[in-house]
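Hi Y.,

Following your request, here is the sequence exactly as I used it, all 120 residues.
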Amino acid sequence: MSSEKYLKSSRLLTKGDFAHLKSNSSISKSKWLMAFYKEGFNNTSDSRIGISASKKVGNAVKRNRVKRQIREFFRKSKYKELGKDVLVVVHPKFYKDDSNSVAEKINNSMDQIFRRIPNG
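Below is the corresponding structure, written out as tokens. Let me know if you'd prefer a different format.
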């Protein structure tokens, strides 16, 4: 059950973490999300994730809902063992298209992105 938790060690938290990721990282895109990724800063087998949703995405409730869904997908996925640091950026028009539910859009987009990331 402990592998189901989303620990602080699984998150990108500090300015240094984000700076490391922004320099010379690779990019994977889907319709609603973009991910910057590279080998983990600590060289462990566990992936760490950071999420960015600007005010253009929507109000605080909408931004936090998207981030919560992304964290939940990552927490339950097999991708958390790739050994990569990943920054997920939410597209500003995420809520403009009502074709699918939030969870469905997140799951489809995250699957597309992580399938394109080469395995460690």
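The domain at 2-116 is CATH 3.30.230.10 (Ribosomal Protein S5; domain 2).

Thanks again,
Q.
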